């Protein structure tokens, strides 16, 4: 009985988790990728990444809260989910999963060894890829989809967003003459 309640609860709020987690990892890695494309320091990457996490995470959580509140008050949904939980799950997932892309850069700053920037970026990309795989797997399991399909779709969408961010940073840096 308790397991079924937890399973229903997980299904009810999985979309909030997926939304927050995917947007958190995509937008944070977009900052990382664009910064790597331009060639800024690890310190700048972490500052921009954390600023993105806090501001965009709060925005996502607030937006999820307001959207759920509107759906509940206008009876647009058959499920009457708690707006505060929807917003909170979105915000926490955004922060927790989005932070993963910054770990290699934080290690670089903490180690004070001035690690090679291409290795740091590669580590961040691998961690980000693993995060996409995890999100897709959770989505597949909770929604009873084929986990392999869910993983592949999530990974492909994430890889596309990350590639776009990297090349935008690289191209804009070259066009604007940014050399770091």
Task: Summarize the entry for a quick read.
By secondary structure, the chain is an all-alpha fold. It is 83% helix and 0% strand. Helix 1 crosses helix 2, helix 2 runs antiparallel to helix 3 and helix 4 (103-111) runs antiparallel to helix 5.
Mean pLDDT: 86
General shape = elongated
How much helical structure, as a percent, in the residues? over 70%
Q: What is the strand tally?
A: 0
Distance between the termini: 59 Å
Radius of gyration: 18 Å
The SS-based structural class is mainly alpha
How many helices? Answer: 6
How much of the sequence lies in strands comes to under 5%
Structural write-up:
The protein is built from six helices and no strands. It is mainly α and 180 residues long. It has a domain at 15-126 and 166-175. It is elongated and about 55 Å long. The N and C termini lie far apart (59 Å).
């Amino acid at each position: 009985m308790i397991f079924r309640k937890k399973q229903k609860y997980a299904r009810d709020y999985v979309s909030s988790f997926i939304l927050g987690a995917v947007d958190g990892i995509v937008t944070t890695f977009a900052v990382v990728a664009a910064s790597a494309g331009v060639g800024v320091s690890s310190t700048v990457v972490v500052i921009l990444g954390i600023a993105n996490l806090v501001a965009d995470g709060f925005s996502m959580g607030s937006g999820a809260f307001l959207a759920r509140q509107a759906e509940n008050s206008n009876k647009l949904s058959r499920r009457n989910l708690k707006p505060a939980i929807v917003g909170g799950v979105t915000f926490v997932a955004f922060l927790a999963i989005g932070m993963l892309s910054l770990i290699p850069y934080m290690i670089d700053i903490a180690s004070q060894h001035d690690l090679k920037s291409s290795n740091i970026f590669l580590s961040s990309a691998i961690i980000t890829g693993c995060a996409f795989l995890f999100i897709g797997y959770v989505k597949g399991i909770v929604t009873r989809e084929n986990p392999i399909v869910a993983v592949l779709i999530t990974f492909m969408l994430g890889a596309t967003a990350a590639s776009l961010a990297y090349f935008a940073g690289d191209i804009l840096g070259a066009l604007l003459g940014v050399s770091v």
